[in-house]
Design brief:
This protein is α/β, with parallel strands linked by helices. The protein has two domains: 167 residues, Rossmann fold, CATH 3.40.50; 184 residues, RecF/RecN/SMC, N-terminal domain (Glutathione S-transferase Yfyf (Class Pi), Chain A, domain 2). It is built from eleven helices and 15 strands. The strands form three sheets. It has a six-stranded antiparallel beta sheet with strand order 2-1-4-5-6-7. It has a six-stranded mixed beta sheet with strand order 8-12-13-3-14-15, sandwiched between helices. Helix 4 packs across helix 5, helix 5 packs across helix 6 and helix 6 crosses helix 7.
Length: 362
């Protein structure tokens, strides 16, 4: 899978930019605030996912315009594709001449992205790690995103009901309806997350071992706040429904649902110690990078397509040994790497270098 052409208009600080990347490593360099990360963000949006920077759609549009337009040609699944994206009162996609929603565009263009914001995978709380899992799985299985959305809606409805019961006790019996829906969607979410982490763990461990020259070991596991065990979706469903019933008394007091996959976490350890609490800056960065490169390996194993890698400021704070490992690991991918100084990747023997200044390619 590779991008063959990209045109960006009125996207953040980029008024107009055209790019014909090579099919290997593309170095995008320039001083800070020139639009390097914006270019990667524009490519990423064609996955159908939200901005990896957590930005609202309105924040993606240039101040001097009412809409942003992006066009991208890419090769995938043994054919050429043309994708169009217009950002104005939401996102409007067109793929090969056919209008698509964000959900429908997912799975056509596959990519992984690493930027400094992804250090939150290790440094911050459970929300960021759940979000990472959910986005990664949704790229492979777009229906998972629908399941997740339905689950969140059901949780929201149960939370409203928990608050209303204090004033309308006759509503108590309707908890069964929402708990049945929650358990149904939760069982699928947990099943998909467990299956994904089993694969991710193997690939990420191997990558981290390479980054650390075999001196350290990375361990990743799924951490359930309330254990919902089961060898099948039916068992997970029944156990989840039972946990919801048992939590009713406490949940009625707090007005929120205390059990379920919306409370779960990804446990990341280096040499059996929490990477969040005990990892150094370099270890945390290496762990986050291993997760993202591991994500790419899972995509390849699942789809037989090598995703396009978007690596924003990936080389900073890494020693030369780790930098060389990354370059060797991704040598057969199409990769976009941003940096301030192109000499950062001096050991790169082939590829294309692109200078960006003021949102324009020099």
């Amino acid at each position: 899978m590779d991008v063959t052409y990209l045109q960006v208009k009125n996207f953040r600080n980029i008024e107009k930019c055209e790019l014909e990347p090579c099919d290997s490593v593309n170095i995008i360099y320039g001083q800070n605030a020139q639009g390097k990360t914006n270019l990667l963000e524009g490519i990423w949006l064609f996955t159908g996912c939200r901005s990896f920077r957590g930005s609202k759609d309105s924040e993606l549009i240039n101040f001097n315009s009412s809409k942003a337009i992006l066009d991208m040609d890419f090769n995938a699944y043994d054919r050429e594709h043309q994708a169009h994206l217009e950002i104005c009162d939401g996102k409007k996609f067109v793929l090969n001449g056919i209008k698509k929603t964000s959900g429908q565009i997912m799975g056509n263009f596959l990519s992984v992205v690493f930027s400094p914001v992804h250090l939150s995978l290790v440094k911050e709380g459970p929300y960021e790690r759940r979000r990472f899992l959910d986005i990664a799985i949704s790229q492979l299985k777009p229906k998972y995103a629908v399941t997740l959305s339905n689950y969140n809606k059901a949780i929201a409805q149960r939370n409203i009901l928990l608050k209303d019961i204090a004033f309308h006790s006759e509503l108590y019996d309707t908890l069964d309806v929402w708990e049945d829906r929650i358990a149904f969607f939760a069982s699928e979410i947990v099943r998909q997350r467990l299956g994904y982490i089993n694969k991710l763990s193997l690939y990420s461990q191997d990558i981290y071992s390479g980054l650390s020259s075999g001196k350290e070991k990375l361990d990743i596991s799924y951490l359930q706040q309330t254990m919902i065990a089961g060898d099948s979706k039916q068992e997970l469903y029944e156990n989840m429904k039972n946990q919801l019933y048992l939590s009713r008394k406490n949940d009625l007091v707090t007005g929120s649902t205390s059990v379920g996959p919306h409370r779960d976490d990804l446990d990341i350890k280096i040499d059996r110690l929490s990477a969040r609490n005990y990892g150094s800056q370099g270890q945390q960065r290496s762990a986050a990078l291993s997760l993202k490169l591991g994500e790419a390996a899972v995509i390849k194993s699942f789809s037989d397509q090598q995703p396009v890698a978007l690596l924003d400021d990936v080389m900073s704070e890494l020693d030369e040994t780790r930098q060389n490992y990354i370059l060797n690991h991704i040598k057969d991918w199409q990769v976009f790497i941003t940096c301030c100084d192109p000499s950062t990747v001096k050991n790169l023997k082939s590829g294309k270098k692109i200078e960006l200044k003021g949102g324009k390619i020099k």
